[in-house]
Amino acid sequence: MHRVFKLSFPLRPAIVLLVPVAIALLAACTPDNNQSTFGTAGPIARDQAALFKFIFWIAAVVFVLVEGAVIYASIRFRQRSSSDKLPHQTHGNNKLEITWTIIPALILIAVAVPTLTQIWEQQSGVPDDRGEVLNVEAIGHQWWFEFRYPDHEIITSNELHIPVGRPVSFKLDSQDVIHSFWVPKIAGKVDMVPLNDNYMWMIGDEIGEYYGQCAEFCGIAHAHMRFRVFVHSEEDFQAWADGMHVAADAPAPGSPEASGQQGFNTYCSTCHTNNSTTPGSYAREISFQDARWNGWISDIENAAIVSAPNLTHFGTRTTLAAGLKELNHSTLVDWITDPSSIKIGTRMQEHAAVYNTEDGTADLSPGQVSDIATYLLSLKPGSGSGGGAPATGGGVVDGAEVFATNCSNCHSTTDIKIVGPGLAGIGDRAGSRVPGLGVDEYIKQSLTDPAAYVVDDYPAVMTDWGHLGTETIEALVTYLKTLK
Amino acid sequence: MANLWHRLTHYEGNGWWNLPRSASAEANPPHEGPIGGAWLSNIFRTLTHGGVSHAGPGFYWLVGLMLAIITLLEVWLFAVEGLGAWYVPLLLGLSALKFVGVVAFFMHLRFDNRFFTYVFVASMLIGIGIFSALLLLMEYAHQVP
Amino acid sequence: MWAFLGSDVMFFGAFIATYLVYRGRSLNGPYPSEILNIPVTSVSTFVLLMSSLAMVLGLHYVKEGQKNKGTLWILAVVLLGMVFIGFQMVEFSEFVNEGLTPRTNIFGTTFFILTGIHGAHVTIGVLWMAFLAYGSHKGTLRPDNALDLEIAGLYWHFVDIVWIVIFTVIYLISATDGPPPGAELLHG
Amino acid sequence: MTTNSLTFPRFIPRPKSDTGIWSWIGTVDHKRIGTLYGLTAFMWFIVGGIEALMIRVQLAQAESTLIGPETFNQLFTMHGTTMVFLVIMPLSAAFFNWLIPLQIGARDVAFPRLNALSYWVFLAGGLILNFSWITGNAPNGGWFGYAPNSGATFNPGLGMTYWIVGLNILGVASIAAGLNFIVTIINMRAPGMTMFKMPVFTWMTLVTSVLLVLAMPVLAVAGIQLQTDRVYGTHFFNSLGGGDPVMWQHIFWLFGHPEVYILILPAMGIVSEVLPTFARKPLFGYPFVIFAGIVIGFMGWFVWSHHMFTVGLGPAANSAFAISTMLIAVPTGVKIFNWIGTLWGGNLKLNTAMLFSISFIAMFTIGGLSGVMHASPPTDAQQQDTYFIVAHFHYVLVGGALLGIFSGIYFWWPKFTGWFLNEKLGLANWALMMIGFNLQFAPQHWLGLDGMPRRIYTYAENMGWENSNLAASIGGFVLGLGILVFMFNVLYSKMNKKIAPADPWDGRTLEWSTSSPPPPHDFDVIPQVQYRDDFWFKKYPETVAEYYGHGDDHAVPSGAQFDDEPVNAIPTVSGGAEDHGHGDDGHGGGHAIHLPDKSYYPFILGVGISILGIGFLTHFSVFLVGAPFFIWGLLGWSLEPVNDPA
Known about the structure:
The complex is a heterotetramer.
Chain B: H1 2-9, H2 37-49, H3 57-79, H4 87-106, H5 114-140
Chain C: H1 2-22, H2 32-35, H3 38-64, H4 67-97, H5 106-138, H6 146-173, H7 183-186
Helix pairs in contact in C: 1-5, 1-6, 3-4, 3-6, 4-5, 5-6
Chain D: H1 21-25, H2 30-59, H3 69-103, H4 112-135, H5 159-187, H6 200-232, H7 245-279, H8 286-299, H9 314-327, H10 329-343, H11 352-373, H12 377-383, H13 387-417, H14 423-449, H15 466-495, H16 534-539, H17 543-548, H18 557-564, H19 601-617, H20 621-639
């Protein structure tokens, strides 16, 4: 047996212990990596990294001392030959015990002081001496992020734009499960807990594009729940914010964009809004998002409507599917055709009627998909003329477009019930709803005084759309009557 | 301090950790119940049966009566309006009294080791500690804007 | 047994803490103030308290070797325990009739689960005591193995003290709880 | 003992045979139950290891599509649950069962039938949990089961129900085992063994048992609440109904953090036995090691919110828990320093068991230091839910608990079986495990700091995570190879038996005083205890003065007076023999050795409990099947005397 002991070359534990150290040196932390916590671009992340390094070096010293002692003792006091001599049978040493109780305690106090300082700096509200605060509400959804700018009345998704050097105050919420909001290079994470308002703040002090990712396990597509943060110069940020209120140019008739718009309005606009540029669209989109959520939670099995990212000015984005892929025509076509080829588990594929096919791919021809993609990529702040809400433009008002803009979040053009009734065949039945009201009169009354008559089993939630103007409403009525 | 240390760490005749090995070593516990110790027990023992070492039915009836009175008192407090902020602490105090009453005078396991009593008391302390902390956290621990 | 009771302390502690955390968070009625019936529950609390008294007396007589008195008092424990469970069943069905179920609101959730689990403990205790009463009647429960009864008694007293806490916390303290301030605003 | 004169019909005869399957099903022998625990836990260890390797295969390269997200979520959920509840805890329980009666000089545990029940219930819980794989509905909400992601709305399958039912059944087993060992350690010590003469492993078992008994009910509450939410539509964690998902996190971690110490303290106990034996000197600072253990056990209750630093508890709560978390590092450090003190100046036999123990100190230190790094909420904000945390707790649980357990296996194997494990293969086993383990988990530190979140089934190519992940995956397979070498070692050593004497390592504690393997009744005569490490000091009486002698410090002197007193000065049971080595059996008789008779009822009750558990998963009518078993087991148990009248 003793031969075996001799074979256990005593340096072996030393070598094995050195492995992690060696790896540490080899894999020296690389701040260039997209989510490195060391490539900091904001004061919070910088403080956190500095605190980490402070603790790390203390730990390194302790590590070397302790492991050194273990290795030294293992070698120095190993059994030589077969000497069975008994070592001194000590029971311990009280002075030593007290020493090595107090020294770690002192070290921990040294760690605790900067820790507490930073906790109170970072977690007790946004500082008011660092510049004008930008307020953002970030909302986690399975599996994408929604960003609302209450000051600017902007809603967007998956790509967050902030101005450089200004504190951004986040109100974090979630609509479904717990998510976590994390931009490693700018600030550590804070969880998004449903109906538990959480707050954090951050400053991005270097212009650039940064990666963010959901860090709390949130279900099947957790790995794919990412986002981007763009830190702009103040001017660029203003330009972006202003652009978000400029409507996209209407597609030229007959162009692929126009055909794509048609497709979008038919298949996508039930859940996706793509034109939140006009005054009032901010509040409306929030209420739609709530309605979509209620549509899903109240009947998960058969929901025809789910929460979905706002696609306003989608063409200005750089990424697809919550920061997963570079956004271009071919990735977008892949995405629309079969979302699970990029991201498994999307609500879109699960619930949207257009994916109700044998293999789960979209029930669209390649041409249609391509047109929709082209249309979406064309969504950018327009030249300013002729765009905007159709109601404000001159000339012929397109009822279909008005419907897609204003109504399709709650009403489908088929028989499917979303929030309100599906409107296929409305022209046939509108005349018999209220005695004395003809088809046109009934539809008009429903639009301008919706509470006057509510169809059974539907909630009386529709608002007065009289502000659209007579001309628009006329066009809408004409369009609605064509629905079969 | 040194004395305490010795009592804790070393075996000395009646040290805290000198736990008898079996039932026979502690056949007659010095006092009833784990809580309150000899002090509380002796008071009631004197009150009820003049220092007889064994509690009798009379003693139990008396404790039962007191518990019933406390319950009535609680219900009366409930009926009385206008106690305001005193209401909850008063009730908690009274029910703590009942709690101790039952534990101290009804519950005693003669042939069990004192260590188990410590386990129970420790669990009470840990339980009260962590669950109060939990209440505080759920009530007040929130991020501010 | 004390150690087991320590375990049970944590068990009930967690439930009671849950109740307290969620106290006053119900978003819709019926609220505690509308539904709790303090006088009736006071009676059932009294019943359970007296069962503890019966318990110690039973134990006392069994130890003294007075078989018949012992059996009688243990039977009294069983009876009082059953009365308590009866009260609880009446209370539960009453609440359900008035529209409070575990699904109605968070008060219903925490109330039913906490008192229900306590009721399950009482039921186990009643069965245990019935078993021992039978043993006492048959003469197998004697002074020399009164430890069995003593352990069961500890359990019984523990269930009683848990009820003392529940009665105070759920009934007396919460009896005036109405809707939380701004409940209707939360989700409107 | 109490109702034996009742003439209820015996439902089934008592098992009598000492061999064959029925003797195992009816066994109440702590050694056999320990073996069952060990074998079952090792089986789950292989299952959990395969799950881990599948995770590593999927993550070895970027954008891998070998395993889909659904399966991946099930894999990491079951890997965590299995390794915590079905491997480390029961492996520790195997050591408790085998060693506690031997170390305290008893013939069995306090409640042998409860002990058997605890095993059968554990087996049932493990089977129910893993049966979910066969149904394709394995739990997928993470081992932490955060609501609402684990609730019925977002997780409609049966998976999380399996998880809840399985864990609650395992909880019953743990509470039963915990109670049993508390009572055993308190009531059944050999005459003269005061609390501060108990072996450290026994002490750590006691602390662990208390933690088990107090922590598992909290998990049960969490499980019941989640279950009623899922099945009956209550609102405990449903924020739409007034509940709060943060509450789940609090309750879960109220259980979860003591659980961490439940996992690590037994390994600390094992190491505290192995190091002194092979250093051939007593444990350095015995009372300090024990107090550190008690303090850890107590403080472990007040640090749970450090799992929730990013939940948004606000600065005050985060500060408080940061401080309490850092404080708990102090007693842990004390233990590590005392182990080094034990090595220092020793005469170290560097065999496999010792190498595992030394590696334990080294690896656990790394886990402890990285723990301090995220005890600080600001740095934790970057590290929470990243691979840094994964690396940290694997250094604690693999580098700590598992290495400790392997050390214990090599150390006590001769005692358990009567033959040695091969040392050369043991060295290979150790080296492969250490290399593989470090290669797997050291790079994960960097992955975490590079921003790789946990629980993602795939990652993009441009993140710079490929190399480290590949290294980790290779390390995983090296570690797996180490485990294969261990299994081969067992087979090889069994075929080439090298018979072990009663005291192969020149041991220190009472278990080495009886034969290897011990007889069914453990000790022919119950030992009388005079000293800490009584067996050692009786072998080397000349060292007594050296250990207890009056030195320059004052930790011992007055205590030594008492420690040195002959045992008859210590109150013992009536009838205790006064001369050394001729004690009675602890029951005052001193003649016949009474062992508890075998019984089928623990098994029947276990079957009943598991069928009732299945009822929650399937249909309430299954209760009707389970209830008879349950009642039969309970009644039979109550009416059957522990021992038949001789």
